[in-house]
Fold this protein.
Amino acid sequence: MIPVTSSDVSSNAEVVFLFSFPTEEQKEQLLKWLSADEAHLAVLVEEREEQFLALSFLFAGHLQVRLLFLRQIGEEDLKQVCWEACLKRAAFIFAADCSEERRLVGADFFATLAHYQRGIDLLASDYSDLGMQIASNTFGNLKYLTKAKNGLSLQNAFQNVPAIICGAGASLTAQLENLPEAMKCALVFAGGSAMQVFSAAGIFPHFISSIDPDPPYERFAAINSFAAPFFYQSRLSGQLLPLVQGELIWLPDNGGWGWEKAILQEAGVFEGGWTVATFCTAVASHLGCNPIIFLGMDLAFREERYAAGVTHAIEEELVVVNGAEGEQLFSKRDWILSAEWLSEFARQHPGMAFWNASTGGLPISGVKNFSFIEVMQELTNFADLGGLVHAQLQKAQPASYATAEELQEKSQRPICFIRDGFRRG
């Protein structure tokens, strides 16, 4: 559940979502808050027709107010409001005299609204510079395709081999000593900041991954686990690929920008979700892995944000969430979206088993929780998983059949062409 303030308009908020008809005191607060800054936006939500009509009369013609009638709200209405609220600090509040029963209705709506807002905020971060960062990475990374394998050709290459997807949450620290034994039973993926944790612990996972278009370079510059096979998409920072010593395994993007498809006619589409954690999960599923086990995927924290070994952490705006026992935790927008995406992914794959061995973090709805000891008891050793990885990668198709010269020519296409195209659009 997302946090909801009691009944006061937050002076720190840039957008206020208010459920139910406000009291006289709240109306005065709201009008004062709106007049303080013309960029402030109020979204008033009502489910009762008479009160909604009263709101329409009360705020008729007010340019900073949006009205939503709960019984007639569609997906496009939600998206439109969330785009207006994009990347702004938001407060979700109830009318002071709102009944407990109606608060439950409002809380459910706020949760849906927050889901859309988080997704749109993340999309907007890609579009904030007209996509120049991702375009630059995509074009600059083309030259590496001559060295890379096509990850799409590895579909079901590891049928029914368990996979452990490792995040960099604080709960991973306690399990690092168990991972070498676990690697005899399951393919271990370390994505993003988890690579730094593995490197500091001297553990070499079967696969590593990153898709961040602009990560802190210092965090990855000295990672020794870069010798492992590396899954990536072309949006990845061009600074990271030269650091990778292991096999490059490329996967196409989700088709949102269309640049890859225009340049590489053979490129398909791969939907990897919001973060490197969801990307690794989608990769493991594509490889045919089963079950898929989450470890160190806390997605929220109380005190320690990351496992031992993570440095150069980026300070980001935090969101208050509830843990499995109702305790107050701190999370981030992309972590919350990851939990929602993983929950939906598990629901859409009923033939697969998903186990969460992370502890003390954000629950993943529909995914059963187990201790890592319980997980280990369910797994059996494979003869030579490292050898299997090597053998399957040898069978994989190249990422591109174009020559280095052809890819180099394509990578030189001026980014300003794309920028000018956006401006004309």
Summary: The radius of gyration is 24 Å. The longest strand covers residues 41-46.
